Request: fold
Amino acid sequence: MPASAEVATTNDPPLVDSYCALLLGGELGSSSGFVPAAQALSAESLTVLQRDLPTIDLKRLTSGDPRERDVCADAMASAASEWGFFQVTNHGVGRELLEEMRREQAVLFHQPFDTKEKAGLVDGSYRWGNPTATSLRQLSWSEAFHVPLASICGEDCVHAQLSSLSLRGVMQEVADAMSRVADTVAGTLAKNLGHAGSAFPAAAGCDGTTCFLRLNRYPLCPFADTLGMVPHTDSDFLTIVCQDQVGGLEIMNDSHWVAVKPHPDALVVNVGDLFQAWSNNRYKSVEHKVVANSKAERFSVAYFLCPSHDSLIGTYGKPSPYRPFTFGEYRRKVQDDVRQTGKKIGLPNFLKCSTIS
Reply:
């Protein structure tokens, strides 16, 4: 065990143990089924570019000038098509509320690891690392609580064992505020394709009972070139993210990783797989990852705009390159692929002309 492993504290999950086991496995050779450490990380060592994400001022959508509203909507659609990511300002989620959310997250995550692991929060919503990882490339140096909105303040809320009334109250406020942002953005993007925008989230099967909050923490990491979150796309319609000022979020654009510089007054929005399918590939769900930090822990909170599991993922127009599928079917296929291959395949599974068996 390296000396740097001593930085782990009693409130951190045993990520150091996972790292060292994978490192040792890689050194044993390919017969063990592990990818050697250097080879595992080489794919993530592409040159990282520093670029500003497109920034959309949501206040312009309520302008009295219809031309200004159209320009704003067009800019949002262009960002969703070209980047799959953009930032929004004047979104209505107060900075004080988000700072309070971060303080409450810190209190929750800094409880002893054994307490977090054994509490069974929200039917097992506490997650850390990646128990199925077979290489360092698949290890996520992070922990998270995946919280269904319907369970935040319910009387039978399991996570009441660990969370305070103040945390649950703040989570509810953040969820409500981010829900309004998600509805505005999703409606605008749908309207840009010719759909009745204001009706889109509900028409797609999304409401207060189907969406999620994910509270993320990325502990200090003593190992260089380690991922806080492995490259992935999101399996929803839209994700709204508040990241703190530590940084580490990177997105794939034009075959290069692009670092997203934190903006204290902006939320990050990214297109999910379902919106790409619904838009007939007009909007892009792109890979993104988080790089671990050796000097500061990082917190973020994400809102996932999801439909019910039996919702059929339609399309804004015909023909569609995808066969009909439900959200539940999509989730199950993603989980099966991860178990069988170690990675998500996602939308290519549902192409009408897919050659994936």
User: Anything to note?
Assistant: The domain at 45-311 is CATH 2.60.120.330 (Jelly Rolls).
